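Hey, weird one. I pasted the Phenylacetate-coenzyme A ligase sequence into the form twice and got a warning about non-standard characters only the second time. First submission, copied straight from the form history:
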Amino acid sequence: MVADALVVPLVEPDAEGVDPARRRELQEQRLRALVERLLAAGGLQADRLADAGVRAGADVSLDDIHRLPMVTKRDLWDHYPDGLRAVEPEDVVCIHGSSGTGGRPTLVPYTAADIDVWAQVMARALGGAGATRRSLIHNAYGYGLFTGGLGVHHGGMRLGATVLPLSGGMTDRQVRMIVDLKPDILTCTPSYAIFLGEALAAAGVEPVSLRAGLFGAEPWTHEMRTQVERLLGLRALDIYGLSEVIGPGVAAESLDSDGMLNVAEDHFFVEAVDSDGRPVPDGTAGELVFTTLTKTGMPLLRYRSGDVATLAGPVPGAPRTLRRMSKLLGRTDDMLVVRGVNVYPTEIEAVLLADDRVSPHYLVVEDRRAAARPELLVAVEQAGGAESPAADLVAALRERLGITCVVRVVAQGSVPRTEVGKAKRFVRWSEGAPPVRGLGG
Ligand code: DLL
C-alpha cells in the first residue's frame, strides 16, 4: 500500500486511474485502428502485416500481438530521411530526432495530434512529480532536434505551469535563475543535474526552492539518485522515452510509484521480449517493444527499442493503475560480454556509487587493444576519504559481476563532464591514446 502522504493527484484520472480491464478494451480498439492506418498508408509496415496475413484491424488482438511483425532502428535508417511516415507531408507539423549511434540520425515526423498526445503524457509525468499550475519548471534539457527540451515544454504548458526554457549549458546563468526565480521543479539529464549541483555548491548556493526533478535520456542507477538528491536537496525521479516513440513521457516515475516508472500505456503499449522476440514474464529482464497506439505521423507497430528493463503491474492500491517498468538496466547494444560474462554499465555504476569515496564522475572502458584479451577498465575520481577505494571496488565488482576489472583512481576533473547532451559513461578503446588521462597505456 502507498502511504497517504505520498499520493499525488492524477492529471488525467480517466486515463491514469481507470480500471485496467477498461483500459485494455481501449488499447484493443486503438490497436485495431492503428493497423487500419498502417494498412492504408502502405509501405514497409503494411507489407509486413500483409505477409503475416493481416488484412484489416479486425484481424488482430492484443492477446496475439506477439505474433505481429516488429520494426527496428535499422528499418528507420533504411528509410532515412522520411522514416516510416504515414501521413502526407502537409500534415507534419514538426520533426524531431536523435543523433543516434555512429552519427546516423533518426528523424521522426509529428502531426498536430501527436504533439497533443505528447503534451498530455508529459503533463501527467510532471504532475506525478508533484508539479502543479503554480510550479516553475527549470527546464535544462536541450531544445532542438532532441526531444527533451520541447517535450517538457509542451507538457509544462499543458499542465498550466510556468516553463523556464533554459536548454543545456551556460551553467552560470542557470545558477543565477535558480537563485533569482526559485523554481520548484528541475528537468535535465542526471549527469547535468550533478554538474549543476556541483556548480551551485561551488557558488555557495543552496537550492532550497527545488522540490523534485525529472531526470532521464541516459541510464542512471538508484545509487546515482542518492547522489543527485544529496546535491540538490530534491526528490529525483526517472523519466524515460525515445524519439521514435514520441520523446520523454513514454514512462515516468511518480512520487508514489515505488521506484518504477508508470508507462503511458493507453498511448504506448509495452511488451518485454527475449532475444528471440518471445514475451518474458513480469519481473524478468527483457527488451522493451513499443506499439504507438495513437500516433499518426510515424506510427510504429512493435518497435524494438533495444532498451532492457523489467515490467510490473501497478503499485497495489495506488491511484495510478498503469503498468510500470523498472529503471533501464541497459541497452542490448551496450551489453558487454567480458570473458563470457554479460555486464551492463549500469551494474558497474551501482557498485561504484555505493562507495562514499567515489564521485559520480566515472568512465567504464572496454579495452580492446589486445583483441584476444579484452579488459574492463574503470576510471573513477575520488570524492573523499584518505584511502584509495580501488582495491575495495575491484573486490565489490568481482562479487557483483563475477569478473575482475581494473580500477584506476584518476585526478579530479580527468573524466570528461557533460554540460550539453547525453553523458557518455562507457567507451570502447581499440587503439591510440587512453580515453581518460591517467588511465595508463
Ligand atoms: O532521450 C528522450 C528523453 C528526453 C527521455 C528527455 C527522457 C528525458 P532519444 O534521444 O531518442 O530520446 O534517446 C532515446 O535514450 O532508447 C534509451 O536508450 C535512452 N534513455 C531515455 N530515457 C532514459 C532513461 C530521449 N530514463 C534513448 N534511462 C532510449 C535510461 C534512457 N536511458
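That's the output from the first submission. The warning seems to come from a hidden character in my clipboard, not from the data itself. Residues 3-26+71-331 form a domain with the Rossmann fold fold (CATH 3.40.50.12780).
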